[in-house]
């Protein structure tokens, strides 16, 4: 139900996964008022000179028009309704630089309005502005780029810019030599300003996937990297904004890593400008999916400023970006150790209450990763982190639930934690998440259930106490999702350790359901399935039933996998199954002996024993059969 | 009559100092250009310098200027000693501002051009004169002068900071510093970058 969204395909391919700024169609406000605003007449008077005046008169009128409050919607719409927008755009198409500048100064202001943006694009304004980017006049270039930055805030506009060669030209604006100098000549300062305006426009345009690609093809990345080294926040912000936006693409993440940009991103985490800090953290959040980046962040001393920024809980956007960055960085164990120095776990637990969901998802994700280190599981308990985590199991946000179940599961590996979780009814909450329609949530809950059963006191009793729980989990074996199946098998392995429960799930038909899954190439599933089968063999005639339901032959094939944990689990299952003579025959017919012989010499003792035990059973049966035949 | 080398040298030195935006070799070229243009003219006073017509021709051919009134005003501004003739000194020093003046120098220059009667103010009437032909499409029912008068009002509203109905130098300077586009508000009197 969840892998397909209901958007049109075109939407997905054009826009990134980010929420677009104004994706909704522009809303038409009630335009029913009969009284025209006073600005209307003033603007209409000036429009006369724009339409019928020579350049001198036009410039006077353009300058005068800026005295109206162009930020006010009534003015903006008046300009549009009088037909002045066409005139302004036509002025752009002349060779009169002063008229072009005057017109752009107005367009730049009013294009903050969504309706006006759409109107400008409809009138072909973008194409003309792109052409203007070729002009040698520096002021004109800046204004054109800034206006494009405003207009390109919706999908079609971004496409138009690209289709008319805009991306290439905007990238070109970044190409100047001024970077790095602390004291700029006036000419260099102008060039920096041009680059800033270019970056603003690229930032707006980069929200479309095709534009991200176009920017890369136009050689934008090394130029952005160069500007990343400068120290002026007003150009750094759009540059990092663009990089962060594009970091959803693997090609950008690779470049960010290899072109040494992580160092600069880390440096700017300590900037005074919160917006810049936020974009740097966001970029790190996205890039830290890759291990090399996680290492680079640590090596450049990035973990400390991130930890410090947890102290700013007022700016929620910043907090979301920072907690996200910490979450992904914590995937690497070395970073978890470093975070412990900065008392990150304590700080995160303190933030567990009262934050918006987009922040909570990241906080919980981070805590889950930090649990890689056993001592952190204890710290979470000591800070009182377990009750809020368990409480979050009752939420509805899917992404949050996935992270919470993972964190709770990680905590449950400590018996003392498990006591608290059980006391707060946490296991029952996890169990009910198995009913959640989202397979990611189901799988995550099932994985978390495993350590709960392993570490709970009276686990068998506890599991039995969930009404309908065993039936529920056995039925999840009918899912089509491989991750769900693997996790449920793992849970069943744990459940089956209690004899009474094993009897119950056998009644619910667990054996044929497991057998049905046997034909798979997925190593993760194979391993957990084999483990479940081995444990389920220990009740009644399950061994025989597994044979009858054709689980044995596929299992033999698992031995051909490259994964040692699959070998071990399979050998154990085959050993258990080989206690039944019919299974021995099936295994033998499928060539198991040769495969198992190779494993008898393994360094893994469990594997050794199981392989040897299985072969022994087969031999014993073979000998007995011969004896019976020949007397 | 060509100048002697010594006199030329003295002139170049003097002008190199007073025309701040040209170096000595540029000054020398401008002097040579002056001599060439003057030699082409058939006017018997040409030896001394440009007269009005020659200057206007030069402005037109070299800088694409077309507005007669403005060109006349430019001539008057270059002609600082008011002898209706632009000599070589006035030529070089004028061009220094005309081509490479700082914003401050250009503001002074433009104001002088626009202040038609030289009384230190740009008056309504003067603005009207300069903007007389700036409406290309006249709505037929309307009195064309009305349109120009309105435009003058608009300009005053924008630029007359002390609200005395005319533009002093301070008004003009402030307006231009606030919005550079207004430097040539009443007509193109500086060379076009094209």
From TrEMBL, chain A:
ARM repeat start-end pairs: 124-166, 468-510
Span list, region Disordered: 10-36
Gene3D superfamilies to which the protein is assigned, alphabetical: Leucine-rich Repeat Variant
Pfam families: HEAT_2
InterPro entries: ARM-like, ARM-type_fold, Armadillo
Name of the protein: ARMC4 protein
Lineage: Eukaryota, Metazoa, Chordata, Craniata, Vertebrata
Gene transcribed to yield this protein: Armc4
TrEMBL record, chain B:
UniProt KW keywords: Calcium, Metal-binding, Repeat
Span of domain EF-hand: 66-101, 102-137, 147-182
A Pfam match: EF-hand_7
Keyword Endoplasmic reticulum: no
GO molecular function terms noted in the UniProt entry: calcium ion binding
UniProt-listed CDD domains: EFh
Keyword Metal-binding: yes
PANTHER family: CALAXIN (PTHR23055:SF60), CALCIUM BINDING PROTEINS (PTHR23055)
Protein name: EFCB1 protein
Organism per entry: Mesembrinibis cayennensis
């Amino acid at each position: 139900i969840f892998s397909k969204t209901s958007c049109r395909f075109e939407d997905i391919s054009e826009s990134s996964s980010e929420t677009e700024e104004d994706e909704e169609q522009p809303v038409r406000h009630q335009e029913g008022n009969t009284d025209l605003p006073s600005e209307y007449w003033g603007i209409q008077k000036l429009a006369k000179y724009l339409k019928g005046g020579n350049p001198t008169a036009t410039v006077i009128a353009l300058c005068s028009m800026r005295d109206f409050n162009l930020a006010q919607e009534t003015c903006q719409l008046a300009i549009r309704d009088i037909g002045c927008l066409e005139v302004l755009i036509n002025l752009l198409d002349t060779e009169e630089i002063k008229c072009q500048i005057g017109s752009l100064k107005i367009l730049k202001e009013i294009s903050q309005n969504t309706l006006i943006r759409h109107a400008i694009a409809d009138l072909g304004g973008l194409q003309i502005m792109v052409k203007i980017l070729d002009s040698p006049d520096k002021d004109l270039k800046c204004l054109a780029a800034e206006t494009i930055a405003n207009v390109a805030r919706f999908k079609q506009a971004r496409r138009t810019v690209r289709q008319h060669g805009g991306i290439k030209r905007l990238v070109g604006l970044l190409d100047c030599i001024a970077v790095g100098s602390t004291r700029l000549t006036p000419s260099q300062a102008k060039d920096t300003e041009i680059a800033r305006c270019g970056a603003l426009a690229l930032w707006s345009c980069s929200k479309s996937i095709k534009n991200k690609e176009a920017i890369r093809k136009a050689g934008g990345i090394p130029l952005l990297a160069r500007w990343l080294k400068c120290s002026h926040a007003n150009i750094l912000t759009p540059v990092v904004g663009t990089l962060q936006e594009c970091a959803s693409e693997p090609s950008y993440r690779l470049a960010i890593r290899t072109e040494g940009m992580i160092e600069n991103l880390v440096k700017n985490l300590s900037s005074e400008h919160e917006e810049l800090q936020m974009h740097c953290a966001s970029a790190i959040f996205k890039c830290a999916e890759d291990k090399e980046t996680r290492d680079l962040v640590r090596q450049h001393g990035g973990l400390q400023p991130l930890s410090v920024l947890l102290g700013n809980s007022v700016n929620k956007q910043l907090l979301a970006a920072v907690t996200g960055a910490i979450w992904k960085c914590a995937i690497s164990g070395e970073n978890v150790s470093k975070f412990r120095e900065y008392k990150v776990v304590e700080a995160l637990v303190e933030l567990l209450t009262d934050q918006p969901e987009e922040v909570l998802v990241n906080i919980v994700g981070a805590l889950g990763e930090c649990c890689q280190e056993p001592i952190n599981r204890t710290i979470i308990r000591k800070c009182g982190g377990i009750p809020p985590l368990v409480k979050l199991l009752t939420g509805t946000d899917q992404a949050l639930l996935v992270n919470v179940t993972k964190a709770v599961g990680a905590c449950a590996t400590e018996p003392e934690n498990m006591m608290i979780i059980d006391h707060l009814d946490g296991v029952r909450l996890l169990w009910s998440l198995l009913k959640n329609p989202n397979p990611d949530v189901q799988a995550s809950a099932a994985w978390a259930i495993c350590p709960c059963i392993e570490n709970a006191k009276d686990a068998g009793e506890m599991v039995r106490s969930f009404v309908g729980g065993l039936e529920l989990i056995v039925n999840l074996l009918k899912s089509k999702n491989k991750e769900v199946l693997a996790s449920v098998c793992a849970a069943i392995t744990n459940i089956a350790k209690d004899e009474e429960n094993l009897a119950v799930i056998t009644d619910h038909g667990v054996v044929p359901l497991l057998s049905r899954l046997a034909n798979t190439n997925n190593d993760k599933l194979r391993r957990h399935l084999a483990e479940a089968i081995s444990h389920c063999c220990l009740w009644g005639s399950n061994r025989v039933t597994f044979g009858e339901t054709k689980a044995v032959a596929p299992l033999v094939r698992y031995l051909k996998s490259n994964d040692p944990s699959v070998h071990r689990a399979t050998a154990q299952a085959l050993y258990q199954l080989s206690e039944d003579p019919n299974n021995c025959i099936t295994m033998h017919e499928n060539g198991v002996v040769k495969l198992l012989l190779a494993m008898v010499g393994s360094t893994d003792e469990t594997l050794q024993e199981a392989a040897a035990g299985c072969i022994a059973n087969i031999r014993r049966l073979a000998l007995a059969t011969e004896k019976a035949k020949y007397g | 009559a060509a100048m002697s080398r010594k006199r030329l040298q003295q002139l170049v030195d003097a002008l190199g100092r007073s025309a701040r935006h040209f170096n000595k070799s540029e000054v020398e070229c401008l002097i040579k250009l002056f001599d060439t243009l003057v030699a082409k003219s058939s006017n018997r006073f040409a030896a001394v310098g440009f007269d009005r017509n020659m200057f206007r021709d030069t402005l037109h051919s070299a800088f694409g200027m077309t507005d007669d009134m403005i060109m006349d005003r430019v001539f008057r501004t270059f002609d600082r000693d008011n002898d209706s003739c632009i000599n070589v000194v006035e030529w070089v020093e004028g061009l220094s501002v005309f081509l490479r003046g700082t914003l401050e120098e250009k503001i002074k220059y433009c104001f002088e051009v626009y202040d038609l009667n030289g009384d230190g103010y740009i008056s309504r009437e003067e603005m009207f004169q300069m903007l007389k032909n700036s409406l290309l499409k006249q709505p037929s029912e309307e009195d064309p002068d009305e349109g120009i008068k309105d435009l003058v009002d608009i300009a005053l509203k924008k630029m007359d900071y002390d609200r005395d109905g005319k533009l002093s130098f301070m008004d003009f300077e402030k307006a231009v510093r606030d919005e550079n586009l207004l430097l040539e508000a009443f007509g193109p009197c500086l060379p076009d970058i094209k």
